[in-house]
Amino acid sequence: MAPRHVVPMSTGHAARGVCVLGTEVFLDTRSIPKGAASFDVHATPAVTVHMIHSPTTKPTLDSRWPLDPDIEVAVTIDVTSRTVDDNQVKIAYYDREGRELAVAWLYLTCVGRCPPRLREFLAKWTWGPDGQGAVLLVNCDRDSPGAGGTDSGEADIRTLADLQDMSVMLLRTQGPSAIFAEYPVVLHVPESDADKVRVFHAARGDAHPLYKPVLGPDKLSYVLEHAGQGDSTFYVEGLAFPDRGFTGLVTFSASLLEEPHKDSPGTPIFTDTVVFRVAPWIMTPNTQQPLEVFVCSIKQGSDSNEAFLEGLRALLRKANCKLTVCAEQDTRSDRWIQDELEFGYVEAPHKSFPVVFDSPRNRGLKDFAFKKILGPDFGYVTREPPGKSVTSLDSFGNLDVSPPVTVRGKEYPLGRILIGSPLPWAAGRRMCRAVRDFLFAQTVQAPLEVYSEWLSVGHVDEFLTFVPALDRKGFRLLLASPNACYKLFTEKQQQGHGEATQFIGLKGTEKKTIDEILADESLRSDNRHVQRCIDWNRDLLKQELGLSEQDIVDIPQLFILTNSRADALFPDMVNMLVLGRHLGIPKPFGPVVGGRCCLEQRVRELLEPLGLSCTFIDDFFSYHVLSGDVHCGTNVRRKPFAFKWWNVVP
């Protein structure tokens, strides 16, 4: 509750004060002349007098009130002053015989404020389609050519493009300008929010507008210059995304202060507040339209990916999608671009732009996102664990997001983030706290931790992916499935194809027939364990994404354990690139039956009825034998959701 604005009245001298349009000013009438028994109050036409009293207290016939300490006098003014002191209030005191003893005068100047409904709208932030509040973008792109980092790291505005990433905040002061010399208007931000934002005041320059930094990490308040002369325009930029200890809400207040006394700041007479929410970083699922595919060129060595690139180019021609091939000198021969970064976006009502999230993995691609992707209207964010200690689970192949889902009546219109982790009760490798805290703090994609630590590399993209579909929920969850693979191989064996051999045409590989694979009890034991791990996730994902068995497709896949952790026995087909209806799938080099790879044939039978087109890409020596596949070696920037994140109900 705002403190009362009280003005002391005296019969010895006139009082002067300022009030805000439509707000109450209480009159301190305790300075009473000796012998006084009653009083009355009169005011000029713009002033409304309010007598606050108990129901049993009544004025006399001549409208005089008894001097009862429980009676309060308040006044309001509903017209902004044109001149200083143009509103007057007179309190006259009378003795018991009705003779006037003394008079107290108050001269008031009224200044304007926001309409009440707008004030209420600005002063709080609520989620949902009927929600309210202002939105702020983290200014994490680089519009200024000479900037060393993101624009938020610069304490000045260097280009007009930079302004477009900011939210406009108007401060309107109405009233005689002379009054604001005595009663200053101060814009201020709480100390807890000051390092999350920066505010620039647009001032008039000789030739061009000047943008003066007035609030931010080292500035908590700013006395408004030229108050009373119309609107003051401010530009607000976010400096920090929501994170652990920061919900994303930032508050600014404008206060009209009492006349300062000597070196002491005046106390607030009235305060208006606006609350902004910093826009979250949002991931995009496979069901969103692809805009650009990134891949690293590796020309040196026996594991060159030139043949892989040719297969990828053919796929992108079908998908009509842009391909960006990153030069080997820029990537320092690091091919695992999916592990290094994740593309997302930020959005406000006035602006949206992509933002790349750089993982703490920090291998050859360590500086690639910062040096080659960060730029005008392309933002950058990263999180590093204390001590820089990372594991394979910190790579972003271990990060995915589902399409929009509804779970037990609760809607997730932007999907749910999936993070690979150990079992909830188990120790083991885990994505670092700094990244997990960041992802959970974005709020709008409600992260879910799944079990991936059973894998040698430990990434979610090794056993699951999502593809678009024309029916049901608009997508299918694909899960790697040893059971489906054994079922397929058993069928082929029973059809007389037990001698069909895998890895035909691949030099230096151990080639096994279907009969040999089915007879390998050690391999079968490994895959029983893997199937149990995947089934644990299957049950979790059905529950947490609201899926049924009809929403899941089992993709044949076998694994082999090394030191109790699993690797794909042949190229991992769920580790695919999804470009609309076009899928770039690791070529499995499975047993050939009737001139066709039986694994490829089975995947086509599963996915083509969904309207999907399957292109199998040879990544065997360029990726698979190095413990990754197509998805690990590519990355996709996708179209943002049409759904606006502020309409989410967390």
Automatic annotation (TrEMBL):
An example Gene Ontology molecular-function term: protein-arginine deiminase activity
Domain Protein-arginine deiminase (PAD) central span(s) in chain numbering: 123-258
Keywords, alphabetical: Calcium, Cytoplasm, Hydrolase
Annotated catalysed reactions: L-arginyl-[protein] + H2O = L-citrullyl-[protein] + NH4(+)
Gene3D superfamilies with a match to the protein in the record: L-arginine/glycine Amidinotransferase, Chain A, Protein-arginine deiminase, central domain, Protein-arginine deiminase, N-terminal domain
Protein-arginine deiminase (PAD) N-terminal domain segment(s): 1-109
EC number(s) from the headed UniProt entry: 3.5.3.15
First-level EC class: hydrolase
Listed transmembrane segments: none
SUPFAM superfamilies: Cupredoxins, Pentein, Peptidylarginine deiminase Pad4, middle domain
Family matches, as Pfam families: PAD, PAD_M, PAD_N
GO cellular component terms given for this protein: cytoplasm; nucleus
Domain Protein-arginine deiminase C-terminal stretches: 269-647
Keyword Hydrolase set for record: yes
Primary localization: cytoplasm
Compartment annotation: Cytoplasm
Active-site residues (renumbered): D339, H459, D461, C632
Family to which the UniProt record says this protein belongs: Belongs to the protein arginine deiminase family.
Designated name of the protein: protein-arginine deiminase
Native species: Taeniopygia guttata (Zebra finch)
